[in-house]
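Researcher: Re-running this chain for the archive, since the previous output was lost when a drive failed. Same request as before.
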Amino acid sequence: MGLPRFLVDRLDPQGSLQLGESESHHGARVLRLGIGDPCIVFDGCGYEARGQIESVDKKSLHVSYQSRIFAPRDHDGRLEFAIAMPKGDRQRNVIEKLIELGVDRLTPIDTERSVSKFDSSAIERLKRYGIEACKQSQRNRLMQIDPCCDWQDWLHGVQTNSQCEGWILHPVRSSEGMVQEGLKESLPFNDPAKFISERTSGASEIQSQRIVFAIGPEGGFTRAEVQHSLEVGLRLLDLGERILRVETAVSVAAVLGSQRLFLDR
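Model: Regenerated C-alpha cells:
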C-alpha cells in the first residue's frame, strides 16, 4: 500500500507546510497519522515531495520535507476529451478513468441528447472527484476541467485551432441511414495499430499537436451533429457494431491516444 497523499497549494524546493483543513482532518482523524509518519504531498501542478508529519493538533497537520521532484504523470497537455457526461455515480467513474489514463483536459459538452446539465456546483463536484483520483493513481498534476460548453461552440473552438487533431467517437455500423461519404472513411477502433500509426501531418508538426476525442451521450450524437463535426475537420473513430457505455469508450480512446502520443515523441 502506498503512502498517504495530500494536496497542497504550493511546494517550495524544501521546507514545511500546514495542510488545509479537510486534508488535515483526513490525515489526523481518518488515517490517524502521528508525528514521524511518512507521507507524500503534491501541489496539483506536477510537483511532489516525500515528507513526514512534524506536528498534529485538532485542526491542523504540519508536514516537513527535504526536496521536491517534478513528476506530473500525464501527457503534458496533449490529450483531451469533450464528453456529454452521464448521470449520477457514473460521472465519478468517467473522471477516474480519465485521470488514471493520463488525460490532461475534460470539457463537458451539452448536446441534443445530453442527459446531464452542469452548473458551477456540478463542475466543482467533478473537480473533487479528480482530486481523489489523483491521490489514488499517484498523479501529481490535476486534470483541467472546463465549464460545460455547447457542442456547436466547442466545435468552433476545435475548427479554429490548427494544432488540434480531433476525433469523434461514434458507432457507425449501428446507426441507421448514416452512410454519408465522411462516415465511409471512418477508422475502426478495433484496429489499434492503424490508429496509432496514422499520420495527419508532417512529423515536425505532430510533436506540438493535441489529440482531442469527442464522446456523445447515452443516446449518441445525432446525425446532424456527426455531420457537422466532419465538416469542421474532425475524423470519425468507429466504435463498431456494439453500443459502448461512456466509461468504456473513454478507456478505449484514452489508451489509443496515449499510444499514439508515445509513438510521436
